[in-house]
Amino acid sequence: MLFPDYRPRRMRATPTLRRMIRETLLSRNDLIQPMFAIPGNKIKKPIESMPGHFQMSGDYIVEMAKQAKEAGIPAIILFGIPDKKDPLATRAYADDGIVQKTVAKIKDAVSDLTVITDVCLCGYTDHGHCGVVDNGIIDNDASLDLLAKVALSHAKAGADMVAPSDMMDGRVAEIRQTLDEDGYDHIPVMSYAVKYASAFYGPFRQAADSSPQFGDRKTYQMDPANAMEAIREATMDIEEGADIIMVKPALAYLDIILRLKQEIDLPIAAYNVSGEYSIMKAGEMMGWVDATALILETLTAIKRAGADMILTYSAIDVARALEAS
C-alpha cells in the first residue's frame, strides 16, 4: 500500500471519518477519581502543588463523590490524612479513623458509587514509611499484619475494594486471607503491584502528608530501570489473590503497561499520578499549553497502551469533557 494508490489522509478529512476509524476510545467508565480526606467539618484546604485539588472534610468529600457520580465516573479512591501519627500507624485501622468514617459517609450518600480505599501506612506513621521501622530498617514481615488490619477495617466500614500501595512482599496474600476469614471474601483487591520509586510523586506527598522523614523508599518501590521485575511483581500478586494489577506511575511506564497486558489476563489499572497532573496544570498556568488537551491525549495514550482503568486527578473534568464532545 503505497502513495498514490493509498492515501491515508482520505480517512482524516472530517471529524466524522476520524471518529469512525478511531482505534482507542477513552470512556468515562475508564476513570477513577482520587480524593483526600481530613478530619473535621466544612474544611477544604487547597493543595498548593495540585491546582484544583483539596484536602477535604467528609462533607466536602461526599459533595465531590456526588459530582463524580453525576459525571458518570464509576469509582473513586480515598486517601486519608489522620488527626495524629505514631510509629505503628494505629489510626490507619481505627474504627473511628478518617478513612473509615469517610467511607461510611460516602456509602450513605452515594451507595452505588464504587469506593476504593488506599491501604498503606506511610500517611499514618510518624516516620513516613510504608511499613514498620526497626532500627532504621523497614521490617517487611512485621508490616503485613498491620496492613491486613487496615484493609479489614476499610471493608468493615463499607469499602467496595481495597488497594494496597505499600509494596511490602506478601501483603496481598495476608490481606486476602484476612478478608476471607472475616467474611469479606467478596471484596476485591486492587494491588499496586508495579509501583516505581518515582520522582513524579512529589505533589501527592504534600497532599497526603506522607513524605518519609528519613531516607527514601527505594528498598521497597521498584527501580525505574527495570521491566522484567514488573512481570515478576505482578505474577506474584496474582498468585497471592489480587483481582486487579496496577502500574504506577503511568505516563513514563507505558511500555510496562503494554508488557503486562500481553503477559497477564487480569484487568490492569494505571495511575496517572500527581506529578504528571501538576506538570500539565503548571504549564497551563504559565500559558504554555492547553492542559485539558494534554490530559485527554495522555489518558488516551495510557488506554492505548493497555490500561483497563485509569486513576487520574482529572477524572471528573475529563468525564465532563467527554460527555460534552
UniProtKB/TrEMBL annotation:
Magnesium listed as a keyword: yes
GO biological process, one term: protoporphyrinogen IX biosynthetic process
Pathway: Porphyrin-containing compound metabolism; protoporphyrin-IX biosynthesis; coproporphyrinogen-III from 5-aminolevulinate: step 1/4
Binding site for Zn(2+): C120, C122, C130
SMART domains: ALAD
Keywords from the UniProt entry: Heme biosynthesis, Lyase, Magnesium, Metal-binding, Porphyrin biosynthesis, Zinc
Binding site for 5-aminolevulinate 2: S274, Y313
EC number(s) given by UniProt: 4.2.1.24
Binding, Mg(2+): E233
GO MF entry, a single one: zinc ion binding
GO CC annotation terms, alphabetical: cytosol
Domain of life: Bacteria
Gene3D superfamilies per UniProt: Aldolase class I
Active site positions, chain numbering: K195, K248
Protein family (similarity comment): Belongs to the ALAD family.
Record note on quaternary structure: Homooctamer.
Protein's name according to its UniProt entry: Delta-aminolevulinic acid dehydratase
Taxonomic classification: Bacteria, Pseudomonadati, Thermodesulfobacteriota, Desulfobacteria, Desulfobacterales
